[in-house]
Amino acid sequence: MADASSVTIYPLGGLGEIGMNCMVVRSGKTMFLIDCGLMFPEESLLGVDVVIPCFDFILANKRMLKGIVLTHGHEDHIGALPWLLNHVDCPVYGSRFTQALVEGKMREHGLDQYVTLRTVKGGDRVRFGDMAVNFIPVCHSIIDGFGLGIETPAGRIVHTGDFKIDRMPLNGHATNMEMFREFSKPGVQLLMSDSTNVERDGYALTEREISEKLDEIFSQTKGRLLFTLFSSHIQRMQEIIDLAAKYGRKVAVSGKSMHRNIEFARALDQLRVDDGQLVSLESLRNMPDSEVVVMLTGSQGEPLSAMARLAKEEHRYIKVHKGDMVIMSSRFIPGNTRAITRIINKLYKLGAEVLYERVRGIHASGHAHSEELGQMLDTVQPKFFIPVHGEYRHLVKHCRLAVAHGVAPERALVVEDGNPVTFFADGHIRHEDRVPTDSTYVDGKGVGDVGESVLKERQLLAGDGLVVVTLILDEETGEITLGPEILSRGFIFEKEYAHLLEDAKCIVLDIYENIPPGQTEKLKERIRSSLRRFFRKVLERDPVVLPVVGVL
Question: What is the pTM of this model?
Answer without folding.
Answer: 0.83
